[in-house]
Structures are given as structure tokens and as C-alpha cells.
Amino acid sequence: MSFERHELLLITVNHETVPLEERERYSLDDEQVERLYRVMHETSAIEESLVLNTCNRFELYFKTNDPSSGQSTVFHALSDFYGIPLDELESHAKTRGGQEAIQHLIEVSAGLRSQITGEAEIFGQVKGAYSKCQQLGGAGALINRMVQKGFQAAKLIRHSTPIGQGQINISNVAVDLSLKIFGSLDRVSALVIGTGEISEKTAKALRSRGARNFGVASHSLERARSVAESWGGEPLLLEKLESYLNAYDILISATDVERPLISKPILDRIHLARRNRPLFLIDLGMPRNVDTACDELEDVYLYNLDDLAKIADDNLNERKAAIKTSEEIANQKADAIWRMLEKRGLVNASTL
Amino acid sequence: MSLLGLEDREWIFLATVVFTITTILGSYSTLKLHRKTGRPYTVGLVSFGWILQTIGLYARGLQYGGCPLANRFELVQFLVWSAIALYIFVGPAFRVSLLGMFTSGFASALSIVSLAVQSWDGPSREPIFGNSPWIETHAALALFSYGVFGVLTVTSCMYLLQSRSLKQKKVGGLFPYMPSIFELTQINLRLLVLGFCILSGSLAIGSVYWSRAVESVEFLKIGATVAVWFAYGILLLLRVKESLSYKQYSWACIGIFAIALLSLDAVDRSTKPISAKARIENAWPRL
């Protein structure tokens, strides 16, 4: 832990500083967050505070009226609050002061510091934390200004760099590709073969983006019925696949088979009836459920597990490549925000 | 002719520069910065180029007292002008990402060629439509339909690019910013219907004039124009009956447009100013 002499300070325990088993000790429920705000209110050296509590991080941003001892006062208060010995807490936590604290907030909000680089959920979590902070009276002029300006900077980073672009999990990659084929998923029908976790996730992801019509096919109608009841959709018998395949635009297949379920001759037979409608085949099975020759047909787009994983990997690499540029933007914005706070007299430059 | 201190060709040159800049900026923004140029910026730039081009064509039109459609340069410029007008005024209804970038690329490519080939801009500064506004309308509508088919060619290229990326599983580059292939197929159909209707209207007007004086129009011109109309008609029929795959349809759109561009040569050859004017005035002495 480093010692910071600043009016604005940040104490953070996150996935970059400590492993999961240690991080768990800092996790707070809503009631504990409220209690922590009360502790901060009662600490005379603290004027404003903001608690960010997610599964991967505990962070406390605060304004102290005593830069020389503010940090140690808060460490003592946190040590009492968590019941964690002070030296242990100090070894887990990192501190940032002044402009660096603002840059950290921007980077966290933009997803640069997330375990999954560029994920968007964190922005909502920071917004939620800020809203709670306002509700519980933690925010004053400094926190309000810093967070609002920080949000603007985070949005700028997400819009002007590829940090949040491209999906990085297989289900969402499949959904993105569906959108690139069909535009909107409202009128698209999807057939799910196999009832494993990945099929379910993909079906759910499609549903969340507007797909309404689902079929669930299984070797046993009973099984199809029970899955269709929980996921929603029409239960179908896999043995009759060819009779209803034409009614679907997307096929998600992830079942154990010895031979491919879908072959080129089957698609050739239904080709005329499809009247050039595109067919998106998502083969998540191992061994593969769809014969690779199907991809030779026009208007048929076949993606297997490796194809989707490669796209997800490429997208993740693109995001990682964007980190440096994003950090530069965060640094420039933090500098501008810090100068603005100084100009408004919300922080005192002489305490540096 | 000079207007506002610049020659007509200079206005058109400036417009071409703006179209080229729009294409370069759009490509740079998408491929390097990984974000689309905002639609207002693209529309603003393209509209600026279109206004410059309109001034150039207007300056030239003042010499004829009508639409400047007297040589190959002017035909190509009017086609480009039509395509850009369609993008500016009808494009928003299509809601197609990157259409502005692609259309300005198409416009700058055709415009650069027409400016570069000096022989296309032959010295024909005489009125070519006699006193007949109907013949002028016929010609302008025909060229406008070619502009629509030009945009159709652009969206067909976009379809082929997008479909190829999906097939080859190369989802970088322009892919994330382009519209879905389904949307492109729908827009292609609408553009084909629109272009075909306008061309049909143009031919209907032209046929009234032609029926009064069959010898007034060269066979080559009639043949080329009707062949293009017929080709797009057949394509529309096949598309409505879903007899062609979307890939075949897109290639056909590109192919027919290339033929249509070549047919401008036939149109150009039959509009030698003096003879055209004389023929028209023979056919329409009252107008």
C-alpha cells in the first residue's frame, strides 16, 4: 500500500490486487453497504464517500478534510468494519489519490479494468453505486462532479475505441451473426437440437434479442416437451427433422451423434421450398452435428464451435489492443476533470 | 460556361473531390478508427458535393437551355447526380449503414473517369432537345433510372461483400458496420422496382414521340435502351418469382448496370446535336 496525501482518495480491492478467496471477504450486501455509509458519515475526517461493490471489486472513493491522516483514518475504519486486521487489509488494498483516482474511476466505468476486458455491465454497476451513494447522502459537490464527468469520459472511450465492440462469448457471437444475416430476429424461427447448457444459453441469447418462435427437438418427445416447457417453444421429435426443418431459419445443434444430423442432400431436398431464405446453422456439437459440405450451398451459413470461438478470441484481442489508446484518453480526461475541480475550488492543489 | 467565377467543369471537379473525400473519410473511420462516420456528417458532405455538382450541371445546362445530356461526360455526370440525389432524399428511408460511403465511392469513381477521359466531353454546346420538354423529360427520367440502378449496383456489391464475409467467416473490416444481408435483399428489390418504373415511364414518354416519327431515333439507341429495360424487367420477374438466388441476382444487377453504362455509348452516338435537334423539330413542329 502506498501513502497518498490527497483530499480525494480511493481504496480498492479488486481482481487485479487479490485472488477470489480474499476478495470474497470484502463482498457486501445492500444492508452492509448502507452500514458502511453510516460509518463514513460518522468519521469526522470524511466529507464525501462513494462505495462501489461488485463481484470483482470493492472500492471506496472519498473526500477527506485531513489529507495528512485521512487515508489511515479510513483504513482503521474499514479494518473495524470488516473485522480484518489492519496490516492484512493494507496488503490487499491499493490506494490512489487525486487525478489517479479519477482516472481509475473512468477506466473502471469504461470496462478497461474488468476481468472480461470491455464488458458493459460494469458501467451499469457504477451508475447503480452512484445512485445509492446519492440516496444515502454520500455524494457532495466533489463526488457528484467527478462521477458525472467520469461517466462522460467512460462513454467517450466506449464510443471512440473498439474496447466494447464485438462479442466475446460464443452464444453472443452466434446472436450477432444471426443479426447480420436476418437483421431483426422478430420474425425468425430457431430450432434447438440438444438440450445442453450451451444450446440453452444460445437460445436464451436469441430470445433476448427478439426471437420468438422456437422449436426444441430431441430423440425423445418427452424430453423435448420438458425442455420446451422450461425454455419455451414447440417440442419436436428429432427423427422427423426433415419434415419441419424448412420452417426454421436458425438451427442450433449440440447433441451427441455418430453421424451428422444435417447433410447436404437433406438441405438440397428442402432448398426449393425455402425460396432462397437464408439458413443459419450453428453447430455446437462434438462430434459435429452438421456435415461441412452444407456450407457449399448458397444462402446456407454454417458455423461450428471453433469458428465461433475464433471470432470471440479475435474480438477479445481487438479489445485488448484498444486498452492503450483507452488509457490515454482516460488519462487526458482525468487531467481535465482534475483541473476543472481545482478551478471550482472543490480540491486544493496545495495538498499534493 | 462560367458561373460564380468557376467554369462548369471546375464545379464538377470540386464535387468529385468532395465525393472522394467522403469515401476516404468513411473508409478510414470504419477500418482504422472502428466506428462509422455519423450519418449527419456523411449526408452533409455528400449533399455539399451534390450542390457543387448541381451548380456545374446548371451552368452547363444554361448553354443548352435544358438538361445537359449532350455527350458522354454529361450523361455520366447526370447519372451520378441522380444516384446521389436518390441517396440524399430517399436513402434515409432505407436505413442502410455505410450506404453514403459506398454511394460516394461509386459517384467519385464514375466522375473521375468521366473527367479524365477528355474525349467524352465533346464540344456539343447546342440545344439537343429542340423545343420539346417531353423529350427532355424522357431523357432525364431515363438517366435518373440509371442513377437508381447505380445505387442498386452499390447495394448489390454490399450484399456480395457481406455474404462473402459470412461464408468465409471473416467478420472483421467493414463487416460489423454493414447492414444484414436480409435488409440488403429487401432494399435491392425496392430499388429494382423503383428504377424499372422510372425507366418504363421514360420509355412510355419516348415511345409517343418515336411513334410520330420512327426515323427520328436511331435504331441502335432504341435497341440499347429497350434491351436494358427488358433485362431489368426479366430480372425483376425472376426476383419476384424467387427463381434466382440472391447472389445470382446481385451479380445480375452489377452485370446489367455495366451493360447499361455501355449502352450510354449508343445513346451518345445518336445525339449529335445538330441532327438530333433537326430530327426532333421535324417530329414536334408544334412544341
Structural topology:
The complex is a heterodimer of chains A (352) and B (287).
Chain A lengths: L7 E7 L5 H4 L6 H13 L3 E8 L3 E8 L5 H13 L3 H7 L1 E4 L1 H12 L10 H15 L5 H20 L9 H13 L6 E5 L3 H12 L4 E6 L2 H11 L2 E4 L3 H4 L5 E4 L10 H11 L4 E5 L16 E5 H17 L1 H21 L9
Parallel strand pairs in A: 5-6, 5-8, 6-7, 8-9, 9-10
Antiparallel strand pairs in A: 1-3, 1-4, 2-3
Helix pairs in contact in A: 5-7, 5-14, 6-7, 7-14, 8-9, 8-13
Chain B lengths: L1 E2 L2 E2 H24 L7 H26 L7 H18 L1 H4 L4 H18 L16 H36 L12 H32 L6 H22 L5 H24 L3 H11 L4
Antiparallel strand pairs in B: 1-2
In short:
The complex is a heterodimer of chains A (352) and B (287). Chain A is 49% helix and 16% strand.
Radius of gyration of chain A: 26 Å
Measure the end-to-end span of chain B: 27 Å
Q: Which consecutive residue ranges of chain B, at least 5 long each, have pLDDT under 50? A: 283-287
Quick check: average pLDDT of chain A? 89
Structural class of chain B: mainly alpha
* Sheet with the most strands, sense and barrel status of chain B: 2 strands, antiparallel
| Beta-strand content estimate of chain B | under 5%
Beta-strand content estimate of chain A = 15-25%
Shape of chain A: elongated
CATH topology of the largest domain in chain A: Beta Polymerase, domain 2
Low-pLDDT sequence parts of chain A: none
Determine the fraction of residues in helical runs of chain B and give it as a percent range.
over 70%
The name of the CATH architecture of the largest domain in chain A is 2-Layer Sandwich
- Rg calculated over all Cα atoms of chain B: 19 Å
- The CATH homologous superfamily of the largest domain in chain A: Glutamyl-tRNA reductase, N-terminal domain
Tally of individual domains of chain B: 2
The overall pLDDT average of chain B reads 82
Succession of helices and strands of chain B: EEHHHHHHHHHH
Large-scale geometry of chain B: globular
